[in-house]
């Protein structure tokens, strides 16, 4: 596992810098603009006034300005223009898999690099970013902050995580729900190898609370096309004592049918909930995956 300073190579740092410029050009961005989020906060630093519109919080009215102008204005604060994002990185055992075509990069390694790219981009734009690493439950939670020095805390969190244990996406999201006291962007980075129905049901709660949800589904190419042909012994990465010797050639068609059904169920559910689902594989560059996604979002406006 790399140290925090090694999570981003020179190429990734250059791409992240370009991503920052790209994100500024995407008016709607990941929610409704990286710096024009509708999720209002109450930070101390005052920024500007805007005219009152029906439905605004009365407590935000500037009564002194009303006395001078006879018009209603809302006081806006610096935090109101910033995005609040929580990055959830799956560190369950299945994420440790690294196939022959991934240059030794496991799904977990890919995920922490992708999370590092996102954190670097968002912190560079003065957005508040927090992090969660998990398997069956939350293993570490770093609250969202926007200070530049906070980036090291995030990278250290990602670098120190280790893949192991079973997966329970729904229970982890349920556990996190009380900790997310403000609406914002929830980014889940996982292979999603869990019960899809339970996962989608939990994501529904976040969407009803008007959170934006972005799901990066990380796969190894082996999991998508099942290249095995001979008798092969498979060992569970989440329950190491479980292993099975199978005729891979005979198993292949049934396996691919189940994988297709799994992917279709997840895709249809995310579309129904207006959750952006981004499939990616470990032989890709994390920063390029992010760049392609943001570019597609911009073109879809």
Within CATH, the superfamily of the largest domain carries the name von Willebrand factor, type A domain
* Poorly predicted spans: 22-46
The CATH architecture of the largest domain can be given as 3-Layer(aba) Sandwich
Fill in the CATH topology of the largest domain.
Answer: Rossmann fold
Q: Please tell me how large the radius of gyration is.
A: 21 Å
Highest CATH level, the class of the largest domain: Alpha Beta
- Tell me the fraction of residues in β-strands, as a range: 15-25%
- Reading side by side through the largest sheet, how are the strands ordered? 5-4-3-6-7-10
Q: Taking all residues together, what is the mean pLDDT?
A: 80
- Would you list the SSEs in sequence order as H and E? HEHEEHEEHHEHEHEEHEH
- Tell me, what's the shape? elongated
- What's the total count of β strands? 10
The total tally of domains equals: 2
The tally of helices reads: 9
> What portion of residues is helical?
25-40%
N/C terminus separation: 38 Å
Query: What's the story with the biggest beta sheet?
Result: 6 strands, mixed
Structural category is alpha/beta
Can you walk me through this structure?
The protein is α/β, with parallel strands linked by helices. It folds into 2 domains: 4-31 and 83-299, Rossmann fold (3-Layer(aba) Sandwich); 46-79, no CATH class. The protein is built from 9 helices and 10 strands. The protein has helices spanning 10-25, 63-69, 107-124, 150-160, 169-176, 196-208, 221-225, 248-273, 286-299, and strands spanning 46-51, 73-77, 84-90, 128-134, 138-145, 185-190, 212-219, 231-235, 243-247, 276-281. The strands form 3 sheets. It has a 6-stranded mixed β-sheet, sandwiched between helices. A two-stranded antiparallel ribbon has the order 1-2. Strands 8-9 form a two-stranded antiparallel ribbon. Helix 1 runs parallel beside helix 9 (286-299). It is elongated. Mean pLDDT is 80; it is low at 22-46.
């Amino acid at each position: 596992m790399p140290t925090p300073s090694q999570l981003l190579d020179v190429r990734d740092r250059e791409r992240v810098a370009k991503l920052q410029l790209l994100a500024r050009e995407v008016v709607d961005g990941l929610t409704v603009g990286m710096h024009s989020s509708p999720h209002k906060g109450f930070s101390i630093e005052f920024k500007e006034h805007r005219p009152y519109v029906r439905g605004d919080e009365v407590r935000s009215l500037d009564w002194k300005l009303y006395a001078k102008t006879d018009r209603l204005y809302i006081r806006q604060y610096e935090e109101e223009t910033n995005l609040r994002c929580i990055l959830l990185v799956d560190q369950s055992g299945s994420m440790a898999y690294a196939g022959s075509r991934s240059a030794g990069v496991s799904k977990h390694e890919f995920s922490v690099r992708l999370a590092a790219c996102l954190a670097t981009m968002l912190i560079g734009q003065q957005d508040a970013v927090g992090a969660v690493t998990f398997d069956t439950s939350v293993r570490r939670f770093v609250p969202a902050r926007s200070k530049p020095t906070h980036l090291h805390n995030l990278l250290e969190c990602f670098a120190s995580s280790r893949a192991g244990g079973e997966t329970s996406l729904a229970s982890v999201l349920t556990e996190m729900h009380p900790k997310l006291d403000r609406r914002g962007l929830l980014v889940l980075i996982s292979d999603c190898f869990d019960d899809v129905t339970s996962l989608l049901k939990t994501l529904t709660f976040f969407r009803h609370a008007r959170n934006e949800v972005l799901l990066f589904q990380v796969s190894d190419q082996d999991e998508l096309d099942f290249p095995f042909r001979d008798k092969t012994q498979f060992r569970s990465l989440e329950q190491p004592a479980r292993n099975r010797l199978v005729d891979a050639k005979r198993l292949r068609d049934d396996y691919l049918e189940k994988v297709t059904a799994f992917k279709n169920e997840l895709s249809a559910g995310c579309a129904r909930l207006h959750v952006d689902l981004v499939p990616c594989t470990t032989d890709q560059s994390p920063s390029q995956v992010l760049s392609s996604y943001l570019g597609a979002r911009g073109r879809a406006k």
